[in-house]
Design a protein that fits this description.
The protein has helices at 16-19, 39-49, 77-88, 104-116, 139-149, 160-166, 178-186, 231-244, 249-265; strands at 25-33, 53-65, 68-74, 95-98, 121-124, 155-156, 192-195, 204-211, 215-221. By secondary structure, the chain is an alpha/beta fold. It has a six-stranded mixed beta sheet with strand order 3-2-1-4-5-6. Strand 8 (204-211) and strand 9 form a beta hairpin. Helix 2 (39-49) packs across helix 8 (231-244), helix 4 (104-116) runs parallel beside helix 5 (139-149) and helix 6 (160-166) runs parallel beside helix 7. 48% of the residues are buried.
Length: 288
């Protein structure tokens, strides 16, 4: 059942990539999650499940599980550069998805690499605010994210706390309507903004997308489950995957929203850990 509002007709799923027998390739740039629910691990699962090929640049290692993060080990800048060089010297990347970066130095390294190796699209998921509400980026790093990476992004995908952090607004104040946040973020220099509404209350979850010439909202019923670890990583990776397959951005967001909603809907099929578990990335695969 299609529970989504989509204000324009979807383009055909048949793409030029498929016609030319080209493998759609997404490079995900993010941190590793040892628990497997978020980060690089979730990215690879989502990209694979939605039909593209995933390659990676790992920016940090984390020790974590369904209960939380117990340690973070940043990757040296020279090795981040080496990963980029290795991938781009051999693999024809269509789309780059960016997740956890951690600090201003890493942001600068990633921005420099992407300017050296341009791709068709960049999907930036600004991983800035933990579930607890704590900031994961210092003010200097947030400023660097805005100046270095936002101008390169085809779309940024912040949740409400991350949108407020990017705008330097007090998260304890009442949240503005989604499109107002989009308009304010668009002024920071990116091509388009998708503000995710999962943190808002209500029976439905609505994401708002705005570019300089289009605006749409994407809604789905809110699903009652605690197993939502990695939803942001999964959504942004799915958007990147569908872009790599040749969909336009509006269609890619629509397809990704449908995918993450089903992954959340099937999350309770998994029994992983005793805390906030992952979504079911492979809900469409036959059960064994």
């Amino acid at each position: 059942m299609d529970n989504f509002k989509h204000t324009t007709a979807l383009q055909s799923q048949c793409t030029a990539n498929a016609v030319n027998n080209h493998t759609p390739i997404v490079l995900t740039v993010a941190g590793s999650d040892s628990g497997g629910g978020a980060g690089i691990q979730a990215d690879i699962k989502a990209i694979s499940a939605t039909g593209s090929y995933a390659c990676t640049v790992i920016t940090a290692l984390t020790a974590q599980n369904t209960l939380g993060v117990t340690g973070v080990l940043p990757i040296e800048q020279a090795f981040i550069e080496q990963q980029f060089a290795a991938v781009f010297s051999d693999i024809a990347v269509d789309v780059v998805k960016i997740g956890m970066l951690g600090d201003a130095a890493t942001i600068k390294t990633v921005a420099t690499a992407l300017k050296k190796h341009p791709v068709k699209h960049i999907v930036l998921d600004p991983v800035m605010v933990a579930t607890s509400g704590d900031l994961l980026l210092a003010d200097e790093a947030i400023s660097s994210l805005i100046t270095e990476l936002l101008p390169l992004a085809t779309v940024i995908t912040p949740n409400i706390p991350e949108a407020l952090a990017l705008l330097g607004r007090d998260p304890s104040l009442p949240v503005e309507e989604g499109l107002q946040l989009c308009r304010a973020l668009l002024e920071l220099g990116c091509q388009s903004v998708l503000v995710k509404g999962g943190h808002l209350k209500g029976t439905s979850s609505t994401d708002y997308w705005l570019s300089h010439c289009q605006q749409q909202d994407f809604s789905s019923p809110r699903i009652d489950t605690k197993n939502t670890h990695g939803t942001g990583c999964t959504l942004s990776s799915a958007i990147a995957s569908y872009l790599a397959q040749g969909q336009d951005l509006a269609s890619a967001i629509y397809s990704a929203k449908r995918y993450i909603s089903e992954a959340i809907r099937h999350a309770d099929q998994l029994h992983i850990g005793s805390g906030c578990g992952p979504v079911q990335h492979f809900y469409a695969q036959p059960k064994r």
